[in-house]
């Protein structure tokens, strides 16, 4: 009974949104087709996503939906085809790499730094919308979200990439509400972390974004390769010294060991102190360091006979530190008392775990033919429109020949 009542309430809100759209200024023919006839964009699931984005407020959802319909009409989403982005498709600038374990399409953007110089912002927005439409058209019935992977290794300028990334998140958040599952920024410049910390409070989708590095997964892959091949493990450097059957040279600063039996490591250098106890030449040198013992040898006989006290080299390390006054604490600790230490590291670990299942899509080579095969008409261009008719004619011709 509870689920039926919830479905009835959701249905009533969807119908209320449609009534508000009809009461407002009359829609154009294109908007009417989007909202009534085609049902590709403005269906019940779409209106439900707009209601969730606006906190189940019917009026705000209807206003937002009408603004999105006007924007789609201005962009011309019905006329976006692959022939317009032939160069981008050949280079693999933006494409759908595949689907994850939950069936969500994974979009990869490998935009170079020179791309904004030779292309306008409008052309990039059209490319972004085209890629999103291809991903949405390839979704199954029970999937309504996608994943974004941004390869930032091609950008040497962090501010330029930040502008491009924030523009993408704004378009996805404003005109595709509820569609983004997770967005990953892979291998950005070191300065991007600081810029993103200052800019992310102004982005609505920043809780769904993560900054990761692919090098963390490369080291894990190398370790698995070494473990799986026992011969390669013997080639690794072993830091443990071998004292048996070896000639050693000891001193107070370092030890130098020559091994006669290990052909892979003929010598070993260690900065560890040796365990050989050497008696001091004079009772006054007890507790003296090697550096102070040398200066002590040039002293007068009276100074040599005087007893020497051992003084630690860093006295400040032994003394307790002065506690920090409470009035020097940051005001953020008063505004956000729930924040604990170490949460940043936990978030980074969670982001790496979440990105582990998408690293295969990031490293998968781009294939234009496979990507074009995922495009449905009319997004696929002239080839996707003509090829079904050609196939039907060939089938009919083959049947006539058999008859």
UniProtKB/TrEMBL annotation:
SUPFAM superfamilies: CRAL/TRIO domain, CRAL/TRIO N-terminal domain. Residues 338-347 have a biased composition (Basic and acidic residues). It holds the Pfam family CRAL_TRIO. InterPro entries: CRAL-TRIO_dom, CRAL-TRIO_dom_sf, CRAL/TRIO_N_dom_sf. Residues 82-252 form the CRAL-TRIO domain. Residues 300-337 have a biased composition (Low complexity). It comes from the Eukaryota. CDD domains: SEC14. PROSITE patterns: CRAL_TRIO (PS50191). SMART domains: SEC14. Residues 300-347 are annotated as: Disordered. PANTHER family: SEC14P-LIKE PHOSPHATIDYLINOSITOL TRANSFER FAMILY PROTEIN (PTHR47104:SF1). This is CRAL-TRIO domain-containing protein. It comes from Dendrobium thyrsiflorum (Pinecone-like raceme dendrobium).
């Amino acid at each position: 009974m509870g689920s039926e009542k919830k479905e009835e309430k959701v249905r009533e809100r969807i119908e209320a949104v449609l009534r508000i759209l009809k009461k407002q200024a009359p829609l154009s023919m294109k908007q009417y087709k989007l909202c009534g006839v085609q049902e590709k964009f403005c269906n019940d699931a779409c209106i439900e996503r707009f209601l969730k984005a606006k906190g189940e407020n019917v009026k705000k959802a209807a206003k937002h939906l009408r603004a999105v319909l006007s924007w789609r009409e201005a962009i011309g989403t019905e006329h976006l085809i692959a022939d317009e982005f032939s160069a981008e498709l050949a280079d693999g600038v933006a494409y759908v790499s595949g689907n994850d374990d939950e069936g969500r399409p994974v979009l990869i953007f490998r935009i170079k730094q020179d791309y904004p110089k030779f292309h306008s912002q409008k052309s990039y927005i059209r490319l972004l919308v085209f890629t999103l439409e291809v991903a949405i058209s390839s979704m199954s019935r029970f999937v309504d979200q996608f994943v974004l992977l941004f390869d930032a290794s091609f950008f040497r300028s962090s501010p330029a990439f930040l502008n491009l990334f924030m523009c993408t998140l704004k378009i996805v958040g404003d005109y595709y509400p509820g569609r983004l599952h997770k967005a990953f920024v892979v291998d950005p410049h070191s300065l991007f972390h600081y810029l993103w910390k200052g800019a992310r409070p102004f982005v609505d989708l920043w809780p769904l974004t993560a900054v990761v590095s692919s090098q963390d997964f490369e080291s894990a892959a190398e370790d698995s390769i070494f473990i799986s091949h026992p011969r390669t493990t013997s080639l690794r450097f072993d830091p443990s010294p071998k004292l048996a059957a070896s000639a050693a040279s000891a001193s107070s600063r370092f030890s130098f060991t020559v091994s006669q039996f290990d052909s892979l490591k003929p010598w070993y250098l260690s900065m560890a102190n040796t365990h050989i106890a050497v008696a001091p030449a004079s009772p006054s040198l007890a507790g003296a360091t090697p550096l102070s013992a040398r200066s002590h040898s040039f002293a007068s006989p009276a100074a040599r006979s005087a007893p020497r006290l051992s003084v630690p080299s860093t006295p400040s390390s032994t003394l307790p530190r002065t506690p920090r006054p409470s009035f020097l604490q940051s005001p953020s600790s008063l505004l956000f008392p729930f924040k604990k230490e170490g949460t940043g590291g936990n978030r980074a670990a969670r982001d790496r775990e979440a990105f582990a299942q998408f690293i295969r899509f990031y490293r998968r080579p781009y294939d234009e033919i496979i990507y074009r095969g995922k495009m449905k008409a009319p997004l696929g261009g002239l080839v996707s429109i003509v090829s079904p008719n050609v196939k039907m004619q060939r089938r009919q011709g083959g049947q006539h020949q058999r008859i």
